[in-house]
């Protein structure tokens, strides 16, 4: 009984809404007059295919990783100047800058000690340190690689590798072996590019 009454009320509401719509449509026709639809010119809808997505950020990240990657197989000996202490400078850096670096002209602004690190750990730590130092605007830093006194055969493990890695970093303008008071044969003084 209740269902029937609810259904009847709903039917009445729908019928009233239909009558109202019909009355409004008729009123519109009387107000506006006869309406002729506009002719539609034939139209072709082209489906534009969006360009294939390009992973630009991933490519930029990969380029940056390649720039920051340091290789153990890089031949640094041809780039080092042979003098009382092996040094390196980029072609655009004057020999005077290397002399000033050797004499301690620039104040030491940061350092990293690679003692006790394995080769891969040292490479990663050095790369990050150089990158961070250059971004912070540091000009002169010290890299302590050790003299190798604790290594098997008392041969320095990191000494030659650190030189190879530093030459590959674009932020490094020059480096020299540190003075005895700054670590001597167990450290390098590094001149960085100001970013």
From TrEMBL:
Protein name: Smr/MutS family protein
Stored InterPro entries: Smr_dom (IPR002625), Smr_dom_sf (IPR036063)
Domain Smr stretches: 112-193
Ranges in coiled-coil conformation: none
Segments for region (Disordered): 43-62
Pfam families for the chain: Smr
């Amino acid at each position: 009984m209740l269902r029937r009454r609810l259904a009847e009320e709903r039917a009445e509401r729908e019928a009233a809404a239909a009558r109202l719509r019909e009355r409004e449509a008729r009123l519109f026709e009387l107000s506006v007059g006869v309406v002729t639809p506009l002719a539609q010119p034939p139209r072709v809808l082209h489906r534009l295919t969006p360009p294939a997505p390009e992973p630009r950020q991933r490519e930029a990240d990969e380029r940056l990783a390649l720039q920051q990657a340091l290789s153990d197989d890089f031949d640094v000996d041809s780039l080092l100047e042979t003098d009382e202490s092996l040094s390196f400078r980029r072609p655009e850096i004057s020999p005077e800058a290397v002399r000033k670096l050797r004499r301690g002209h620039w104040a030491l602004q940061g350092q990293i000690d690679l003692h006790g690190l394995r080769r891969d750990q040292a490479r990663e730590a050095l790369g990050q340190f150089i990158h961070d130092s250059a971004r912070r605007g540091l000009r002169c830093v010290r890299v302590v690689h050790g003299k190798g006194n604790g290594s098997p055969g008392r041969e320095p493990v990191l000494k030659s590798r650190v030189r190879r890695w530093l030459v590959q970093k674009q932020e490094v303008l020059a480096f020299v072996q540190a003075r005895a008071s700054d670590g001597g044969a167990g450290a390098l003084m590094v001149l960085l590019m100001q970013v």
